[in-house]
Design a protein that fits this description.
- The chain has 19 helices and 29 strands.
- The chain is an alpha+beta fold.
- Among the domains are: 129 residues, Pleckstrin-homology domain (PH domain)/Phosphotyrosine-binding domain (PTB) (PH-domain like, Roll); 275 residues, no CATH class.
- The chain has a 16-stranded antiparallel sheet that branches.
- A hairpin with a 7-residue loop joins strand 5 and strand 6.
- Helix 14 packs antiparallel against helix 15.
- The N terminus is likely disordered.
- InterPro entries: OSBP_sf, Oxysterol-bd, Oxysterol-bd_CS, PH-like_dom_sf, PH_domain.
- It comes from Dryobates pubescens (Downy woodpecker).
- Keywords: Endoplasmic reticulum, Lipid transport, Lipid-binding, Membrane, Phosphoprotein, Transmembrane, Transmembrane helix, Transport.
Length: 741
């Protein structure tokens, strides 16, 4: 059998499909038959259907009659007056243009409803099966794929409807892909490397289920066997080339719901699926989309509205009807949404005050008064060396007046380093910028020995930073997902600049007699979206000494690792505790290495709260790597927090407001009392859930039952699409993306 190329093939491998639908439908005939907005009979015009002689002759007569009728209607449609009976009233060009526009708008709405119906109707399925899809990390994921006319729906499982994404097939190409592995491999791709994904799911989902990152402009798919793969290619080619035929055939066979009811009851907007057309019924659309469609339900585009107004009120003004009609068509074909001026996002206000602290040991010591020493001795009677202090109630005089969820956001005041790293082409320089960003999160510290609040279960915190150079925003969202053990989960996103970061921290405390350590057990995962690179990093521990005798001092200790498995680069940084006989220069010391595999490329030396130098092994040149000077601190990214009136009751600032006020007023008695009220309410809620047999459900994060990792429910790890994505914003704890189409 002669092959016509990797895409144009006969349907030989999938008999079930080729026996029902014609493999060679002339798309031009379908468009012409649909030009008047009706569902015409397609069988006489389609090759490949078996017919008897009588049927053929009858078909010719019907075709001739249809063509003659089409010609007369076409003349009326185009506004011609030559073949219209003189007894009938003449149609002016103005009236003819109105008729054309009316049919034009009706045809657009009909096409919209057709696609919505085929997507949402469970009975309209061309093919469905498990397929393996390769992600951007070059690993394979088994996903449930459902092929419908014009779209390929991808799910995690076939039962619970965990939607992953929707591929728009209208601009895709299909080609067989050679592979050494078992099975049959093929590629679905956009020839101009544009995004192939729809913005919304079949039920209006804004964010798909969490899987490994998938490419934006193509999909590499593997079927279990060659026969299955060729059957999928036949079905996909059918959906690619003959989607109109498929939709209309299924309508004629009664497999589609009523169009009007489907459009009204389905929470799917064309704004999320087709990117350019408008849905007439907007009752169930979100407020943002309803505002966008407000003026476009009656008119297909701006020119239609303006022209109709000119024709009714100013017949003698403006350009000719032909010129207006051409302009209208051009504007509709290249329609672009206006800038989003009515997005109802969370209101953020710039932080008015923050405490940075000073470099050196002086800012990390605490002189304890006699009154507070008695409180410490009372506390020490409850503990023994080696004991975990997570369940011990600490006195309020050592508390920093903010939550631990807020404390974790200190690492992103220099998130612009990550924006630079995402653009860096050299992998070694990219790792250096990541290490530089990592070190930039430690110099911000309160004066003295202070510990942030232990977050309440369900407590959340939100903030953001604005990048003036790239006109982007870095959003930070955290939630206390467990109380015993205390686990804090966080998610950071700046899709426009190409990075996101997620992780969870289990806070542990150990008492050693005259000292204690606060251990942050967990890891963060930084992802560069356009590269598919993950940088996994750990945290140092905080060490407090001088509890019983000597000066109470806080230090950082331990060895942390930053590793990128894809590039092979890694960094190791050791935070050193001050030795017993050390001088002031030995306070807050660090040393580190940047390596490629086992080869050391650079050495880091310095202090984590001041200057760090780097020595390149190859050139033996040393230079300043990082130094938080006053100028650096002054020009760092400003942080914005949620307006107090818009905060939820369980957001950190509002939740701890009474305790914070008392600490700032130096009223330790009231602070202790208000802290007890919050902790007692948490204990009472835990007892009630236990009696009812209820499990705590997190608001923003889910835990992976296999790995135990916590994931942000609304994470969007797609690369930023400059042609479609317009703005990333946050509303009620969900980070969303406004799209152009």
């Amino acid at each position: 059998m002669k092959e016509e190329g990797p895409v144009r093939r006969r349907f030989s491998s999938c008999a079930g499909i080729s026996s029902v639908f014609s493999p060679r439908a002339d798309g031009r005939k379908l468009v012409r038959n649909a030009s008047f907005g009706g569902y015409n009979e397609f069988s006489p015009a389609l090759p490949g259907f078996d017919k008897g002689k009588d049927d053929v002759s009858q078909s010719k007569e019907d075709t001739a009659h249809s063509m003659s009728k089409s010609k007369s209607e076409s003349k009326l449609f185009n506004g011609s007056e030559k073949d219209i009976s003189l007894s009938s009233s003449k149609l002016t060009k103005k009236e003819s243009l109105k008729v054309q526009k009316k049919n034009y708008r009706e045809e657009k709405k009909r096409a919209t409803k057709e696609l919505l119906s085929t997507i949402t109707d469970p009975s309209v399925i061309v093919m469905a099966d498990w397929l393996k899809i390769r992600g951007t990390l070059k690993s394979w994921t088994k996903l449930w794929c459902v092929l419908k006319p014009g779209v390929l729906l991808v799910y995690k499982t076939p039962k619970n409807g965990q939607w992953v994404g929707t591929v728009l097939l209208n601009a895709c190409e299909l080609i067989e892909r050679p592979s050494k592995k078992d099975g049959f491999c093929f590629k679905l791709f956009h020839p101009l490397e544009q995004s192939i994904w729809a913005i919304k799911g079949p039920k209006g989902e804004a964010v798909g289920s969490i899987t490994q990152p998938l490419p934006s402009s193509y999909l590499i798919i593997r079927a279990a066997s060659e026969s299955d793969g060729r059957c999928w290619m036949d079905a996909l080619e059918l959906a690619l080339k003959c989607s109109s035929l498929l939709k209309r055939t299924m309508i004629r066979e009664g497999k589609e719901h009523d169009l009007n009811s489907s459009a009204d009851s389905t929470h799917v907007s064309l704004y999320g699926l087709l990117r350019a057309n408008n849905l007439h019924s907007g009752e169930n659309l979100p407020e943002i989309e309803r505002q966008h469609f407000k003026d476009q339900d009656v008119y297909s585009d701006k020119s239609d509205k303006e022209n109709d107004h000119e024709e009714s009120d100013n017949d003698g003004l403006g350009k000719s009807e032909d010129s207006d009609s051409d302009t209208s068509e051009r504007q509709d074909d290249s329609y672009i949404d206006p800038e989003p001026i009515n997005i109802k996002e969370t209101t953020y206000l710039e932080q008015s005050h923050e405490e940075l602290g000073e470099a050196g040991e002086a800012a990390q010591t605490e002189v304890v008064s006699e009154e507070n020493k008695s409180l410490i001795w009372t506390l020490l009677k409850q503990v023994r060396p080696g004991m975990d202090l997570s369940k011990v109630v600490l006195p309020t005089f050592i508390l920093e007046p903010r939550s631990f969820l807020d404390k974790l956001s200190d690492y992103y005041y220099h998130a612009d380093f990550l924006s630079e790293a995402a653009l860096e082409e050299n992998a070694y320089n990219r790792m250096k910028k990541v290490v530089k960003w990592y070190l930039s999160g430690f110099y911000k510290k309160p004066k003295g020995l202070k510990k942030p609040y232990n977050p309440i279960l369900g407590e959340t915190f939100r903030c953001m930073w604005i990048h003036p150079r790239t006109n982007s925003k870095t959003f930070y969202i955290a939630e206390q997902v467990s109380h015993h053990p205390p686990i804090s989960a966080f998610y950071v996103s700046n899709r426009k600049d190409g990075f996101c970061l997620s992780g969870s921290i289990l806070a542990k405390s150990k008492f050693y007699g005259n000292s204690l350590s606060a251990i942050l057990d967990g890891e963060g995962r930084l992802t560069f979206l356009n590269r598919g690179e993950d940088y996994v990093m750990t945290m140092p521990y905080a060490h407090c000494k001088g509890i019983l005798y000597g000066t109470m001092t806080l230090e950082l200790g331990g060895t942390v690792n930053i590793t990128c498995e894809k590039t092979g680069y890694s960094a190791t940084i050791e935070f050193k505790l001050k030795p017993f006989l050390g001088n002031n220069d030995s306070v807050n010391q660090i040393s580190g290495k940047i390596k490629l595999g086992k080869e050391v490329l650079a050495i880091l030396e310095g202090h984590w709260d001041s200057e760090v130098t780097i020595s390149e092994k190859k050139t033996d040149v040393s230079e300043t790597f990082w130094n938080p000077t006053s100028d650096i601190k002054q020009h760092r990214l400003p942080r914005y927090t949620v307006k107090f009136e818009e905060q939820d009751d369980f957001e950190s600032e509002k939740l701890w407001q009474q305790v914070t006020r008392a600490i700032n007023n130096k009223d330790q008695t009231e602070a202790t009392q208000e802290k007890y009220v919050l902790e007692e309410a948490q204990r009472r809620s835990a007892k009630e859930r236990k009696l009812k047999g209820e499990e705590w459900t997190c608001k923003l994060f889910d835990q992976d039952p296999v790995t135990g990792e916590w994931h942000y429910k609304y994470a969007d790890t797609r690369p930023w699409d400059p042609l479609n994505d317009m703005i990333q914003f946050e509303k009620d704890g969900t980070i969303q993306t406004k799209v152009r189409h």
